[in-house]
Design brief:
By secondary structure, this protein is of the alpha+beta class. It has helices at about 20-25, 50-55, 75-85, 110-125, 155, 160-165, 170-175, and strands at about 10-15, 30-40, 60-65, 90-95, 95, 105, 135-140, 145.
Length: about 180
């Protein structure tokens, strides 16, 4: 029997701007099995990219991370999340503006909710940011994977991904998280 057969995996759902830019930071972390781009939080079943972009479905672009909590605890995923988003910007992330790009942590258990709230409070109390931490913490709703061309976008179209990333995320990370 393969020892991987006994793994107990969990999922985390994070929204933090364009989902293209949210895959890469989590994709190569130890214990992360897969990262899927998609839509969640809205009221339309199986929305298309065009429908979500219209802003009328209530969905945000998000990533669903399947991970092994024995290797990569949820608390550690949250630490990575805070470092790749701007938790002080409620109306988008970097060059991506509007409701579909809000920073939101979607929890799928009471334990995740408590860990997310504790992590958010610790970040607020740290004084790292002059502004209030506005990232929302909400119960997970159905996660709809995005169309195939959105999956692993940073690998499929590295130049376009680089253009997207030039919108301020790397500069923000350097300013707030790198010593």
């Amino acid at each position: 029997m393969d020892k991987n057969d006994n793994k107990s995996l969990d999922t985390a759902i994070f929204a933090g701007g364009c989902f293209w830019c949210m895959v890469q930071p989590f994709d190569s972390l130890p214990g992360v099995e897969k990262v899927v781009s998609g839509y969640t939080g809205g009221h339309v079943a199986n929305p298309s990219y065009e429908q979500v972009c219209s802003g009328l479905t209530g969905h945000v672009e998000a990533v669903e991370i399947t991970y092994d909590p024995e290797v990569m605890p949820y608390k550690k995923l949250l630490q990575y999340y805070w470092q790749v988003t701007d938790p002080t910007d409620a109306m988008g992330q970097f060059q991506n503006r509007g409701n579909t790009y809000q920073p939101i942590i979607f929890y799928n258990s009471q334990a995740q909710k408590e860990e997310a709230e504790k992590s958010k409070q610790e970040l607020q109390d740290s004084g790292k940011f002059d502004q209030k931490i506005v990232t929302q913490i909400k119960p997970a709703k159905t996660f709809y994977p995005a169309e195939d061309y959105h999956q692993d976008f940073y690998k499929k179209d590295p130049l376009r991904y680089q253009i997207e990333e030039s919108g301020g995320r790397a500069k923000f990370i350097k300013k707030h998280w790198q010593k």
